Amino acid sequence: MLGTILISVFLVAVIVLVIMKMIKDKKKGKASCCGSCAHCSMCGVCNRNFESER
Questions:
Q1: Which helix (H) or strand (E) holds 23?
Q2: Distance of alpha carbon 35 from alpha carbon 27, whole angstroms
């Protein structure tokens, strides 16, 4: 039982750290994608302004 609790706490901590990193990167203006819009199904949504500036 103690092992299950420790693993759960560890996983929650990792998830919180990942979310905090994503929020920090978003505030800095970094993209969370790989930058290859040709293969992205959300290209029309996330790069709407980029496409209109061309």
A1: helix 2-28
A2: 18
Question: Residue 48: its pLDDT value, please?
Answer: 53
Q: Output b/e per residue, 18-44; b: 16+ Cβ within 10 A.
A: eeeeeeeeeeeeeeeeeeeeeeeeeee
Enumerate residue ranges in the chain where pLDDT < 70: 31-39, 41-54
Record the pTM.
0.57
In sequence order, what are the residues at sequence separation of 6 or more whose Cβ sits closer than 8 angstroms to the Cβ of residue 32? Answer: 22, 25, 26
Residue in this structure with the two tokens 């996983």, named with its chain if needed: 11
